[in-house]
Amino acid sequence: MSPFWKIFVAIFAYISGIVGLALAVMNASQKPPTTSLAVIYGAAGIIFLGVGVVLSRRPRY
């Protein structure tokens, strides 16, 4: 994968992760809370943040 696409996908993953975690907090803080959506958005946010971290690491040789 070229460095351009790696950086592009990493930035997309970071933004998606932050949005997912924000949606999880918003859904969990509603009255009444929608916990199933909060868990789904939270899990997706954590996965996307993990993908962003893996793609933005420096290669080890």
Could you describe the 3D structure shown?
The protein has two helices and no strands. By secondary structure, it is mainly alpha-helical. Helix 1 packs antiparallel against helix 2.
Low-confidence parts = none
Radius of gyration: 14 Å
Shape: elongated
Largest sheet: none
- Indicate the mean pLDDT: 91
Count of DSSP-assigned helices: 2
Strand residue content: under 5%
| Secondary-structure element series | HH
- In terms of structural class, how would the helical and strand content be classed? mainly alpha
Number of strands: 0
Distance from N terminus to C terminus (CA atoms, Å) equals 17 Å
Which bin fits the share of residues in helices? over 70%
Keywords: Membrane, Transmembrane, Transmembrane helix
Transmembrane segments: 7-26, 38-56
Furnish the topology, listing elements before pairings.
Layout: H1 3-28, H2 35-56
Transmembrane segments: 7-26, 38-56
Keywords: Membrane, Transmembrane, Transmembrane helix
Key terms for this structure?
single chain; 61 residues; mainly alpha; 2 helices; transmembrane helix; membrane; transmembrane
